[in-house]
Specification:
heterodimer; A: about 280 residues; MetI-like fold; about 0% strand; B: about 325 residues; mainly alpha; about 75% helix; globular
Chain lengths: ~280, ~325
Amino acid sequence: MKNIIIELLKDKIGRIGLIGVCIVILIALFAPVIAPYNPTEMFPQIRNEPVKQFIMGTDNYGRDVFSRIVYGARVSIIVGLISVGIGASLGIILGLLAGYFEGWIDNIIMRIMDILFAFPSILLALAIVSVLGPDLKNTIIAIGVVRIPVFTRTVRAEVLSVKSQEYVTSARSIGVKDNKIIVRHILPNILSPFIVQATLSLSSAILVEASLSFLGLGIQPPDPSWGSMLNESRKIMELAPWTAIYPAVAIILTILSFNLLGDSLRDILDPKLKNVE
Amino acid sequence: MRSYITRRLLLFIPVLIGISLAVFLLMHLIPGDAVDSLLGVEATDELREQLTKQFGLDLPWYEQYFNWISGVLKGDFGYSIRTGKAILPEILSRFKVTFELSILSSIISWIIAIPLGILAAVKRNTWADGLARVVALFWVSIPNFALVTLLLLFLSLQFNYYPALQYTAFFDNPVQNLKTLIFPALVLGAIMAGSVMRMTRSSMLEVLRQDFIRTIRAKGAKEKVVIFKHALKNSFSPIITIIGMQIGYLLGGTVITEQIFSLPGLGLFILTGINQRDYPVVQGSILFFALVFVIINLIVDILYACIDPRISYK
């Protein structure tokens, strides 16, 4: 772990990505300390341009844009982490089962994954949210489900290649049990591509959350989400451009940081993946 | 080769059945059924019962699925519970808009991305390469709705320009049609260009490193011939894969783009369906979207095998 961070810091792209990601996480963690106001508090000054009291101005309802951006980081990170957590944990279990046992288990799991893969991710998330109803919890579930096949495929492919290594064969020949082989010998050896996938998944989970909220089907107002802030700003953006610019920049910089970090991690941890997008 | 295509086609059938089951079951997880959402809470029990029967919602789920899927196979996607209109004709007419938008954006992205990717690979590790890579990575990270919002804001504040929002069909008035679609297509295409460029660059690099390229160079072939006749041809299969994957992204992206520009495409149809809780519409359109997506992937796989004969032996 320490080595990975040192390598990351040596790489220019990795360094920028890591710093960006750390900043967003810190903002999310310390939102109540950083934000000057409650993100849903309405002031009488509506569409106030950025001044000392409201450094990013106020929106159509007189809410402080800066405080909403800060709390929006919290929403993005929570949705990103929990949904990728759901997708990754189910994906790793399914991928291990499919790759290790092969045969009919593999067939059933992978055909279900093929079906999930047949839906463009935002569309599948839209369908799930439309069934469950739009709110924070359901947005997380929808994005988590969409990530499952991505992780299952990555893990399965790695398990298949690790499984044929000599140390696994020898462990099996001396009678080590399956679950022990999986946990002791296979799991640690598939972690690198898994970490890369998780970082890149975080950026797409944050992107899907912002898109859903932008369409009015994710986080519901008055709760702050960058996507819904941008959506609300569309009606008034010529009068109050700051209500559009700041959330847009926040989304772009956050996703860019995760992508830079993911790209650099991929080069460090998994050089053979370098040419695969 | 032929057996590969047959195998792919056969594998396609269970996937189709799976997709239709997934869409159907998902829509049936809805808490409270379509009748409740249509009638509201104050309706009489009698009316509710009558509608439940009319929609066939009193049957067990597998019978409902069977009725629905046999209709779909005959081209009957059911009726909208809001407008009472047949769904398939509406899907087809709206898909034309989505399809045109997708094709236009794809072409725009290839025009931008493929030459830039080749340039970056050929001029590897120069400032041109560095610039192209950073711009591409930055570009992949911009959500289309954020880019569109910022662009519209900039255009309206600086040039007082507003893109046309009234959609006209291509065959009614091609000029007006292109005027409406070009802006959304440019945005979607520009965003897609990032990943196509990255893929073009890396697969060109891979090919340029190979022995046969060295041999061709040693034989004294001109650099132009090396790059366009030999290297580019051999780096096409990964590029085609990414283009196939992009179509999925594109179909998802059109949902947002159509909403922003009020284009009457399939994406907007789904969104309206979701907002009006018109489940037959959502169910039918999502099924249609998924079908288009898997068919495109199937075509990509087959093309892939045509370009790279090694595939069929795997």
